[in-house]
Write a structure and sequence with these properties.
InterPro entries: RNaseH_sf (IPR036397), Transposase_Tc1-like (IPR002492). One of its GO terms (biological process) is DNA transposition. GO terms for molecular function: DNA binding. This protein has a two-stranded antiparallel sheet with strand order 1-3. Strands 2-4 form a two-stranded parallel sheet. It is elongated and about 85 Å long. By secondary structure, it is mainly α. Helix 2 crosses helix 4 and helix 6 crosses helix 7. The two termini are 38 Å apart. The protein has 9 helices and 4 strands; from the N terminus they run H-H-H-H-H-H-H-E-E-H-H-E-E.
């Protein structure tokens, strides 16, 4: 999440800020000093001053704002699809909504709703039988010494992806929704591994 200062630097300069920048630069202030005074980046101050010296105006260019590719209704449908099917990909959401847009726009709309694509929390459903088997396993090996444990191999599987799709399930969820039932996946293992 961007900090307050970073978000402010990404927003457009207001007419008042533009006039203030031009006045201070005309008075001979340095770019760094002006940027600190108006709480903007030096790049924004430089660009504003450059536009004033080149064109002679500080007004924003018309048409410089990004046009929305989707309607508000389509935005709500995108978010509803993410809530209904949290494991849906951007492509399936786009197909379900029926809007011809690139997947990055879907990600942006979902990020505006504070939904992020995360790996689902995987939980082992520990039944009383599983707990009993684990307890027996531990009790059988409670008196082992270092030489016995040196004969045991603990393996960890790593995934290596050569293509673009790793076939992992992703879940759209808000921060703090890790243990909610739609974003929770239960893993079942054979009894001897549990």
């Amino acid at each position: 999440m961007l900090g307050k200062r970073a978000r402010r630097n990404l927003s457009q300069l207001s007419e008042f800020e533009r006039s203030l920048i031009i006045g201070m630069k005309t008075a001979g202030w340095s770019t760094r000093r002006v940027a600190g005074q108006v709480d903007r980046s030096e790049c924004a101050v430089r660009n504003c001053w450059k536009q004033w010296t080149r064109i002679g105006t500080h007004a924003r260019k018309t048409g410089s704002r990004v046009t929305r590719k989707t309607t508000r209704r389509a935005d709500r449908r995108i978010m509803r699809q993410a809530f209904v099917g949290p494991t849906g990909t951007r492509s399936t959401i786009r197909a379900d909504v029926g809007v011809a847009i690139v997947p990055q726009i879907i990600s942006r709309h979902l990020a505006e709703a504070n939904l992020k694509s995360k790996g689902p929390f995987r939980a082992l459903p520990l039944t009383p039988e599983h707990r009993q088997l684990r307890l027996q396993w531990c009790q059988a090996r409670s008196m082992w010494n270092v030489t016995n444990w040196k004969k045991v191999v603990f393996s960890y599987e790593s995934r290596f992806v050569l293509g673009t799709d790793d076939n992992r399930v992703r879940v759209w969820r808000r921060p703090g929704e890790r243990y909610n039932s739609p974003t929770l996946f239960f893993v079942t293992l054979p009894a001897q591994l549990v």
